[in-house]
Amino acid sequence: MSKLKLDIFDLKRLQLNKSKQELMTAGQERQAAVSSQQLATFIPVDRDPVAAIKMTESKMIPELLPLRHQRMLANRFSFFRGTAELMEQDLKHQYQSNIPTVISGDAHVNNFGFYASPERKLLFGLNDFDESRIGNWESDLKRLLVSAELAGEENGFDTDRLRMLLVLTTKTYRHAIKRANRLPLSDVFYYSFEINDMIDTIAALGDGSDQMNYRLQKIIKKSRHSNSEEIIQKMGTINDQGELVFSDNPPRAKHLGPILYQQLVAGYNFYRQNTREDIRVLLANFHITDIIRYSVGVGSFGTRCYLILLTGLDGSHIVLQVKEALPLRYNLLNLQVQQAVQNGMKAGRRIVTAQRVLQSSSDPFLASTRFGGRSYYVRQFRDMKGSINVAKLDFDSFQLYCQVCALNLAMAHSQSPTSPMIRGYIKHQKVLDAGLADWSIQYVDQVTKDYQAFLAAVQN
Known about the structure:
Blueprint: H1 20-33, H2 36-39, H3 49-57, H4 65-72, H5 76-82, H6 84-91, E1 100-103, E2 112-116, E3 122-126, E4 133-136, H7 137-154, H8 159-182, H9 185-189, H10 195-205, H11 210-223, H12 228-235, E5 236-238, E6 244-246, E7 253-255, H13 258-274, H14 277-283, E8 286-294, E9 305-312, E10 317-324, H15 329-332, H16 337-345, H17 347-358, E11 367-371, E12 374-380, H18 395-413, H19 419-426, H20 431-459
Antiparallel strand pairs: 1-4, 2-3, 5-6, 7-8, 8-9, 9-10, 10-12, 11-12
InterPro entries: DUF2252 (IPR018721)
Organism: Limosilactobacillus panis
Protein name: DUF2252 domain-containing protein
C-alpha cells in the first residue's frame, strides 16, 4: 500500500509545472499503481476510539465537554460529525490515490450550506474548513458518502435505495470532475453556485424536487433577514448602563474575565492588520462594545469560540465570530508536541487559505489572528448563512441534495492545479461508483462500533 506524507499545508506541492495532458497521464499512472478496486477495499482498523477522542478534547474547555458529549451522542451521525479525527486516522491505513489536492477534510453532508457573496447573492457550497489540508480527493468523497449513509439511516430510508444513492453520488462527482476538466481555467476559478442555479440543477437531476424547492424558498426568505442586526436583537440585552450587549447563557454563552477580554481586544487589533484594506477602512467606523464566549456546532463545541459586537458611528452593528483554529487532527497522533504547537500557530492562516480556495466567493471579513498562544480565524457570524436540515427531507430530496453536494465538492477540488490528475485517475472508472458505496457501508459499521464504545465510556 503506497502512502504519501501529507502533513504540511504547502501550496508549492500543487505546482507540478506540467501540461493538462501530462497531468491526466500522471493520474492514469496513479490508477495503474493504486487501482479503483484497491481504493474501494476497506481495510479494518484497530485503535482505541475513546483514547483518540480524549486526546482531541484535552485541547478543549473542560466545562463544555458534558454538553459536547450530549450533542455527539444524539445519534451515530452526530457522533460521526464530532469525531473527524477517527476517520482521518483510519484513512491513513486505507489505499490512497496520492494525488495532492486542497481538500476540506470534513466534507460531510451538514458541512455544506448557504452563505453570502460580497455582492449579497446567496451561494451554496462547503462551509467548514477546520480540517482543511493538502490531501487525497477521495478522503473528502468517502466522508461525504459515509455521512450520507448515516444520515439516510437516521431518516429511516430503505437500505437498497440508500446504496443506490451512494452509487449515484460518486457518479455525480466523477461527471462533475469531467465537466470541470473541459472548462477554461478562468471559468473554473470564477465558478459559483448561486441558489437559483441550485434550483435549476435540482430540476435537471431529478423529478422529486418539490419538497427541496419548498425548503430552498424558505432559506431564501430567511436569509434576507439574517444579519448582525437580527443576531444582536435575538442574543442581546440592555445592561445597567443602558448599553446593548450580549446575554449570558452559561456555559454555552458566557462573558469573559478582564485578562481574557484584553487578549481578545489585542487579537481583534491584530486581525485588523491581516484583513483586506477595504475592510480595515470600514472597521475604522466601528468600536468594540461587547465580547462573549459562544460555543457552536458539534465537532467544534468545546473549542474556544467568541463573538465580538462592534457598534458603528451611526449606531449600526457587526457581529464577528472569532473561532479557534486547532492543529490538524490529522496530525495530532503523529507529530511531536513541538511540531503540533508550530502547526497550531499556523492553523488560522491554513483555514483561511483553504476556504478562499475551495469556496467560490468567501466572506470579505475572513482573516486569521492569534492571541494567548493560540491561532484563530475571524468571519462574520451568521451573515445570510443557512443550511438544509437533511433530517426533514424525503428520500428523493435527500438524494438530490447529496448529488448537489458531490457536484460542489468536485468543483472545489477542481480549483487545485492537480485536478487533471483526478480526471486521469477516474476516467472510465465506473467501478468506483459501486466500490466506494460498499466501502462507505462497511465504514458505517466501524462508526457504529466507535459510537457504542464512546457511549459506554461516557456512561461509566
